[in-house]
């Protein structure tokens, strides 16, 4: 059984995260938003919630976004794009 989330969230997202339903939703989002075939998408669960995203390129190289298990930076970047903000 999946472990409980590693940070505090609301009730619904806590259930979704604990049951991996949120990962299914993320796969569906990536498919529809970016037109990527389901066969090319994978979900990875890091025990400490450090991996936020990974992209594997055709040459086999991987670009990873790693960070603390918090949404503060992603939200900051989304709200201030295209200006680069620092906390």
Brief rundown of the structure:
The chain is an alpha+beta fold and 87 residues long. The protein contains three helices and two strands; from the N terminus they run H-H-E-E-H.
Average pLDDT, to the nearest integer? 81
User: Given the structure, what is the number of helices?
Assistant: 3
Task: Give the termini distance in whole angstroms.
Answer: 36 Å
Biggest sheet record: 2 strands, antiparallel
Ranges where pLDDT stays below 50 over 5 or more residues in a row are none
Structurally, the number of domains stands at 2
Rounded Rg: 14 Å
Helix content: 25-40%
User: Which of globular, elongated, flat, extended, rod-shaped describes the shape?
Assistant: globular
Strands of the largest sheet, in order across it?
A: 1-2
Query: Would you report the number of β strands?
Result: 2
Describe the structure.
The chain is an alpha+beta fold and 87 residues long. It has 2 domains: 1-45, no CATH class; 46-87, no CATH class. It is built from 3 helices and 2 strands, in the order ααββα. The chain has helices at residues 11-18, 21-34, 72-80; strands at 51-56, 62-66. A two-stranded antiparallel ribbon has the order 1-2. A hairpin with a 5-residue loop joins strand 1 and strand 2 (62-66). The radius of gyration is 14 Å and the shape is globular. The model has no long low-confidence stretch (mean pLDDT 81).
Task: Describe this protein with a few key phrases.
two-stranded antiparallel sheet, 3 helices, about 90 residues, 2 domains, about 15% strand, globular, 2 strands, alpha+beta
